[in-house]
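BUG: 3D viewer hangs when loading the predicted structure for this chain

Environment: internal workstation, default settings.
Expected: structure renders.
Actual: progress bar stalls at 90%.

Input used:
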Amino acid sequence: MSYDQFLLLTKIETQIRILRKQVLSYDRKLSDQEIKDLQYINRFYIQLFDIEGAQLSHCLQILEHDFQKIKSLYQDEEYVDEFNVLCQRFVDRFSALLRVITLDPREWVKKKKSKEMSYGWIKDHEIRTLAQVKRQLSKHFAWKKQLNEQILVLETKLSEQKLKEKLSVQKEILQLNHRLEKCHGAIQFLQKRYHCMSNDTSLFVE
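Structure tokens produced before the viewer hung:
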């Protein structure tokens, strides 16, 4: 390992230590109500962290695991493509986690409430019964699977592309991630609705 490489890894390790303190402090300051309100919310793109809930320590563990893998592949030319993909994902995850801890948890609760009213493609008359909600859930799970498969194909192609094509593919992945996030949010909304309806089925006709 060259001296410059050593300095880079040392700098990243220092940033992770700082982030760890911020995350642990963030988790400690969460109120019981905030933990309850954010229980089923994923505040990240699914491809970055598929984790729900208010506490962020699990995300930190994933990030630290990524860094250890980057260190292990740093000088291995046989895994250059894997190393580059890992580095990009590490940067994306680090930035996402940093962004989340800078926003007040109450703001995420407000976002959740506004999101639950933003699934315009789900018409109210299509989710009035348990059977209808089940059908909508089935559709959305199929869409989620399809989007995940499309993202996986693009991520596989990414390492084979030249720089200009890479930027285009990364943009496409970002757009698919945005659609995946909305799909995941809609699934959570439908699951919550199904749970509420099934607890009081006298109000609904199958």
